[in-house]
Amino acid sequence: MNNRIFRNHRFILITALSLLIGSCSSLPKIVPVDQNQQLSIEETCRTPFVKKNVQLVHSLEASVPGDRKSYFVGITTVYPSERAFESVLLTIEGLVVFQARFDVKGISIKRAVHPFDSKGFAQGLLNDIELIFLKPDGKLVQLGTYSGKGIGCRYLKNKRKVIDIIVLPNKNWEIHSYKNSNYRPIKTVLAQFETSNSNDQTDQKDTYPTEMQLLTHGIFGYSLQMKLIQVDHPQ
Question: DSSP per residue over 107-150, as a string?
Fold first, then answer.
């Protein structure tokens, strides 16, 4: 009898906590602006994303639960007009462990060495690259001043995800994705530009972030530190 009462009380407590947590979950506030500012803000929110064909080479530091770290070189070629990209992942010794192309038709894997041969890895990489480099293909539902940080735009993607884009006054930017059902954070991208006094017009550091950090939230979350090595513009 006591066990039954205990189970009932435990159930009530868990339910109450769940409701409390759910009721406290909310998205950061976006303060609306005058209509004559909206077009400018929408344009600013597009600045993080690739506008023309580009190939970016990054050094990568991947961290997974248990404080395990791995180091790679990533080559990402983005074709924004086609919403397509190619990804090559190499060890620091130069061995290709993963190579694939992603487009509207799906994923075409050219090479995948264990443990990078799982379907989940390819899909996860697809989601990460799309989030970082391509403007959300969802509906723009809100824009304005983002929670005191800077300029922000909010997109609703397939009614399942909310994607927030924030451009800070110092030109750095952030992307946050949430589950639309409970506003739970899914992924965060933080981009930082290098301050440089160089007058070299071929220097791409004023266009593409020199450092980025991708955080995937949750019990199996991971992080990825990306440092820009090289930029090319293929035809």
Answer: EEEEEE-TTTTSHHHHHHHHHHHHHHHS---SEEEEEEEETTTE
pLDDT at site 66 = 74
Stretch 197-222: mean pLDDT, rounded? 74
| Nearest CA-CA partner of 144 in 47, 26, 45 | 45
Q: Per-residue pLDDT for 3 more than 90? A: no
The three-class DSSP label of residue 25 is: coil
Three-state DSSP at 15 gives helix
For the segment 84-94, what is each residue's pLDDT rounded down to a tens digit? 999 999 999 99
Question: In the structure, what pLDDT confidence band is assigned to residue 18 with cuts at 50, 70 and 90?
Answer: very low
Residues 108/101, Cβ–Cβ less than 8 Å: yes
Residue 87 — φ and ψ, nearest 5°?
-130, 130
**pLDDT of 47 strictly over 80:** yes
Distance CA 40, CA 213 (A): 27
Give dist(CA 76, CA 208) in Å, integer.
Answer: 13
How far apart CA 30 and CA 125 sit, in angstroms, is: 29
CA atoms of 117 and 101, how far apart (whole Å): 14
Q: Are 213 and 53 in contact (CB under 8 A)?
A: no
Rounded Cα distance, 87 and 129, in Å: 9
Q: Which tokens belong to 106? A: 């799906």
Query: Three-state SS for 112?
Result: strand
Reported as half-sphere exposure (CB side, CA atoms, 13 A), residue 158 has a value of 7
